[in-house]
Structures are given as structure tokens and as C-alpha cells.
Amino acid sequence: MGLKSFFRPAPETQPETDINQVLTRLANNRTAIQVEFEEKKLHFHSVLSVKNGVIMMAKPEGLGENLTRECHVRLTVPGTHQEIRLVVSSPHVNLKSGGGAFVCSLPTQFESSHRDAVRVDTSRFSNIHLHVVNLNDKFPVIDLSDNGLKFRVLFQAGLSMFPIGISVAPAKLVASKFRLDLDELIPRVHKGLAVGCEIRFDKTKENKRFLTNLVDYLERKEERKVMVG
Q: Is the peptide bond before 187 cis (omega within 30 degrees of 0)?
């Protein structure tokens, strides 16, 4: 899948009220679900299986001993803002495929969304950049989230063009042939040759979905695909 395909928005669905039906549907469709390991603020995607009154999910390589009994993970139901909070009952199960999984107890209700901004490394994508109109220049974006970004200047002297706390406008976030007009770009930190910024833009439905889909797409590209056997 190419970068431009991320712009196809995920279908929005009405929130469902029966949590067991939601879990069964996700399991039957083998839907990739965003999972957050609360204690370590780790994010990955997995698919789940519902069997014998428990939930089993594939365990990414590298998670190792970070996942322990009675720790918590959160699932985000695709296409909604619904979240499901699970308690890990068994942190590691060997699968016949040779991979690993972990097991959680079945939940009884949905949780309120507490989503923090998910940040993704964009440094390897050459077609994602920041265009600062008044400078008639563009800068590579090396980090991106729903509410901020980090870009790189070529020389130390370039940092002076972006003083901390002083809004830069207008600017555009450009990804392939798509763009997001930014009302404000507010530098918050200088680190090396990088400038970390808060971004503000017209929160239309289209703009919000553009940025959310872009971040989600890039996050999936950075994660290892895992499957439950």
C-alpha cells in the first residue's frame, strides 16, 4: 500500500453497546486492532481470538517481560472512539505457529477514551515535509502526531527562524499530493537541529480525519504485523 492510500478514510460506525458482540465481530473478521500497554505506554497492532471465555492476542517480538500478569492493555475499536480495557491473566502462551500470545479476562463494559497523542517517526518518508510559506522553504518532518510535529533544519543558524513560543503562519503539512493548511505552527522546543512544534488547524471533519489517518497509517508501517494462530 502506497502512502497516498492512507487518505481513504476508515468507515465511521455507530458505537455498539454489547461488548461481547464487538469482540466476537473483531475476532471473526480478524480485524487489526490498536493495542496500548498502559504501564509502559507501548503501542502495537494485533488481532484477537475469543475462546473459552477469554481473549487471546498475538504478542509482538520484543515485548518480553514487560507484559506481566494483572497489567492492563487497552483496545481501540476501529472506526469508533470506543475503548476496551483488559486485564492480562497470562502474559505468555506459546502458539503452534512458533509465535507467542497473551491472554486476558473478558471485560464487562467499555471504557472512556483516554487517547494520548500517538507519535510516529516519519524521518524515513521523503515525501512528508513542512512548507513555511513566508520563508518559501520546506523542511523534512521527522516526527508527527495528532497535535504536533517535529521538523529538521539544515544548519544551527536555522533555529533562529523559529523562536520558542512565537507562532509561524501560514504553513502547510504536505504528504505526497495531500496537504493540511496550518493556522499556527508554534515552536515548543529546539533539540539539535530539530524543532518540535504544536500545530493548530481548522478542525473540520475532513482535516481531522486526514491527520488521524496519516498518523495511524505511519504507525502501522512502523509496527510488526502479528497474527493469532
A: no
